Amino acid sequence: MTTGFAVTAGWDLPVADPSHVHAAVAMADAAAAHAGLTPADRAGCALIATELATNLARHARDGQLVASATEPGPAAWVQLAALDTGPGIPDVDAAMADGYSTANSLGGGLGACRRTAGVFDLYTAPGAGTTIIARIGPGSLTTPTTHVRVGGILSARPGERESGDAWGVLWRAGTITVVIMDGLGHGPEAAEAAANGLHELAVPAGADDPPALLGRLDRRLAGGRGAVAAVARMSSDEFTFSGIGNIGARLGPHGASAGRAAHSARTHGLVSSMGTLGLGQRLRPQAFVAPWREHSLFTAHTDGVRSSWDLSRYPGLTGHDPAVMAALIWRDAATRGDDAAVVVTAAATRPAAANKPAAAYWPAAGGRS
């Protein structure tokens, strides 16, 4: 069985005033239209955008709302991420009560967001601000494997209608393949190059190891704008990586509890080969192979994100949706002057109950997770 999705649209919006809520809803609706969501799911996106943006306007510091959307299809989804750098939420359970943080708005606050979304996750810790992600759509529950969870975030360069970055996932025969791409330059042509490359994921092929997939991408992009990309493939026990160009990537442990020094010592930067896909260059992608263990964590980002981020700053992050981790990397390290994509793949774990006071995870109501 083969399934997957491609995230090809994303925008971010600073939210500092109630007057920004209308723009947040319009951004969410554009994302829902891009993903081809049903009218009911589009209405859900509007409700969640209203609640999250209202909350940011009233309570946050440096609030941002980021909308990401896949291509249409059976695994389509829209993700809304609300980010801030405030003091954090002191009482998470109270904040989830209807009307707590967004009284007089349409849906009853964060509790309504949780009920509406296919996946809802909130991370907060003293001094670390608050990060919320909500996904909606038929593919909002995106990982049909037991050993891997994946999430990400995507935004366009300010002033651009399209992002030249993109990322996607393919599940096939017990493996998961993650691709992140950066089309050269900005705007529609860069967006077309990145999206065109991700369409290669849907093409049946005998060889789909990372170097071979990069070769297929190189041929597919011939004659166009060109792109850089990285590919990672994970099975239950093995990790393989290969890249072409300036994609930042790391492989390390899942969780910050080991402390910053230990975390840094065990994290490996993954090196891509030089070159650009699609420009007729003689490329030599190399494969890096390592074990994929219970606590493994793979991160990758385009050059719109600086390499200075550090997830070990955030206690209790283990077990949260990888999109929360990607959103924190984006918040801390995106240059804001370029397209930006971050994708995080984590070995499947669930949070300990003791983490809940500082950092809580909720799948949506109704048994979905």
Task: Provide structural commentary.
The chain has helices spanning 21-35, 39-59, 92-95, 110-116, 187-198, 210-220, 260-265, 322-333, and strands at 2-14, 64-70, 78-83, 119-124, 130-136, 148-155, 165-172, 175-183, 227-234, 238-244, 248-253, 268-269, 288-291, 296-301, 340-347, 359-363. With 369 residues, it is α+β, with helices and mostly antiparallel strands. The protein has an 11-stranded antiparallel sheet, sandwiched between helices. It has a 5-stranded antiparallel sheet with strand order 6-15-14-11-12. Strand 7 and strand 8 (175-183) form a beta hairpin. The radius of gyration is 19 Å and the shape is globular.
CATH architecture grouping of the largest domain: 4-Layer Sandwich
Q: Give the tally of β-strands.
A: 16
* Structural class by SSE content: alpha+beta
Strand content: 25-35%
What is the CA-CA span between the terminal residues?
21 Å
Q: Order of strands across the biggest sheet? A: 13-10-9-8-7-1-2-3-5-4-16
Radius of gyration: 19 Å
| DSSP summary: helix tally | 8
Shape: globular
Largest sheet features: 11 strands, antiparallel
Tell me, what is the CATH class of the largest domain? Answer: Alpha Beta
Question: Which percent range fits the helix content?
Answer: 10-25%
Q: CATH topology of the largest domain, which one?
A: Phosphatase 2c, domain 1
Question: What number of domains?
Answer: 2
- CATH-assigned homologous superfamily of the largest domain: PPM-type phosphatase domain
- Rounded mean pLDDT is 85
Q: Helix-strand pattern, N to C?
A: EHHEEHHEEEEEHHEEEHEEEHEE
Q: Name the poorly predicted regions.
A: 101-107, 256-265, 351-369
